[in-house]
Amino acid sequence: MLELKGLTTHYGTSQALFGVDMTLEAGQVATLLGRNGMGKTTTINSIMGIVPASGGSIRFEGQELVGRASFRTANLGLGLVPEGRQIFPNLSLMENLIATASNHLGLADPWTVDRVFALFPELETRVGSMGNLLSGGEQQMLAIGRALMTNPKLLILDEATEGLAPLVRQKIWSALTEIRDQGMSILVVDKNLHDLMRIADRHFILQRGRVVWNGRSVELDADQEARQKYLGF
Ligand SMILES: Nc1ncnc2c1ncn2[C@@H]1O[C@H](COP(=O)(O)OP(=O)(O)OP(=O)(O)O)[C@@H](O)[C@H]1O
Ligand SMILES: [Mg+2]
User: What CATH number labels 2-231?
Assistant: First the structure.
């Protein structure tokens, strides 16, 4: 579904990605792991066209994404839950949810506000609240709901549960498990390796802008050396 080959990205003259290779099969959950500043957000933003790639290739269902405007990438069926959530502070929860809603691919069973509320019941009680008055957990659920309302085939989450209490984190993981079971493909960045091991099929570890390790959860679990070296635990 998604294939990155030799992806390079620069910020001005400073190079952040040095040839990232990774693949994600349809229906899979894959993770991007690595310590701070290793290039996870840059990889995601390059896929989405938010930060332009300087070289290499990103293919989504056979179509090249490098050089494509970010709205055109989104319209192909990629939904982003960005780092820091980026909820519109001056819009209500409901307005945030519907502001960017679309069904460009004409999916048969599109996401609705009611379906998002079924996934995250806590959002329904807060429909009129302004974005900036929502808790971190509510904002993250809203950011996921907002991305789902664009009816993506691939959902990309950058720091899925950062700064959230354990109970809220578990709600996010069970929601992601639920939509994965409904067939959604997911690429996720998070620091909670334990939770990711349960939900993910494959992991890609970035070190200074390169994928230095990839494998399945059982393999990552068994490879204490790689975990220690690249993740620090
Ligand atoms: N806007 C920017 N301008 C210049 N350099 C940047 C910019 N954003 C990121 N970088 C640099 O690119 C490299 C990769 O950063 P990136 O944000 O992709 O890492 P990350 O793996 O997402 O880290 P974190 O875990 O802290 O979110 C770092 O060296 C960072 O300093
Ligand atoms: Mg990041």
Answer: 3.40.50.300
